[in-house]
UniProtKB/TrEMBL annotation:
Residues 10-130 form the VOC domain. It comes from the Bacteria. It comes from Paeniglutamicibacter sulfureus. It holds the Pfam family Glyoxalase. InterPro entries: Glyas_Bleomycin-R_OHBP_Dase, Glyas_Fos-R_dOase_dom, VOC_core. This is Catechol 2,3-dioxygenase-like lactoylglutathione lyase family enzyme. Coiled coil: none annotated.
C-alpha cells in the first residue's frame, strides 16, 4: 500500500436535490424502505433530510433545491448495490406492485441491473449486483 494515497472508507452518504421534501421522503420510504433519521433547518424552514436504510443501503440526504432538481432530472448519479440477482428481482416485483415503471432485471456489463426507476423528481435510480 502506498502511504501517500489518502485513506478512505466507502461512501458516507449520497445527497440528492429535490423539489418537495415530504413527497421524496414518502417515496424513498415506501419504495425502498428508507427511514428518516435527521432533519436540517434554516431557521423555521426544513431544508433537508437524512435517511438511513435498515438493510445496508447508503445514507441518503434529500436537499430542498427545486431548480437544481429540475436541471438534473433523468441523470443517474450512482448505482445502489444489491447482494444478488434474487434481491434485484424481489425489488423489481415490489416496485411493479407499487406502480413504478421499469424494464425489469437484465444482464449488465458486470452482473445484473435494474435501471430506469424514476423517483418523484425524475432522478434515474439504478440497482446493480455482480452475481
Amino acid at each position: 500500500m502506498n502511504p501517500e494515497v489518502p485513506e478512505l472508507d466507502g461512501v458516507h452518504h449520497v445527497k440528492l436535490p429535490v423539489t418537495d421534501l415530504e413527497r421524496s421522503r414518502a417515496w424513498y420510504e415506501s419504495r425502498l424502505g428508507y427511514e428518516q433519521v435527521m432533519e436540517f433547518r434554516d431557521g423555521d424552514n426544513v431544508t433537508g433530510l437524512l435517511m438511513s436504510h435498515p438493510r445496508g443501503g447508503p445514507a441518503l440526504g434529500l436537499w430542498l433545491d427545486p431548480e437544481r432538481a429540475s436541471t438534473v432530472a433523468g441523470f443517474d448519479y450512482f448505482a445502489f448495490g444489491a447482494p444478488n440477482r434474487k434481491a434485484l428481482e424481489e425489488l423489481a416485483a415490489r416496485l411493479t406492485s407499487l406502480g413504478e415503471l421499469h424494464p425489469g432485471v437484465h444482464p449488465g456489463t458486470i452482473g445484473w441491473v435494474l435501471s430506469h426507476v424514476k423517483d418523484p423528481d425524475g432522478h434515474e435510480l439504478r440497482f446493480q449486483c455482480a452475481t
